[in-house]
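[Q] Does anyone have a clean structure-token version of this?
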Amino acid sequence: MSKGNDFLDEETLFIVSQTFKALSEPTRIKILHLLSEREHSVNEIAERLGMLQTTVSHQLRFLKNLRLVKYRREGTTIFYSHDDEHVMTILEQTIDHARHH
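[A] Here you go.
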């Protein structure tokens, strides 16, 4: 379907729904919000958020599969950062919205 069409194609619809699914889980919101500051290692994220490293790794894998976070390896440490400015804007605007109510 063309972009000018009022209907959403299946792929776009799927990506949009998966993005909102990612943003519907409190742990993932915390992780993305933390990554909006700067990149962090898995251990730093777990420590800052008071979570188990396995929980953080699981959520990061989910976010990575949706291309919402990216990573780089430095020795044995993996550093994560956000990878979608559009989604980060939506997240920050939604946080601002919630704080003003």
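[Q] Thanks! Anything notable?
[A] The two ends are 39 Å apart (CA to CA).
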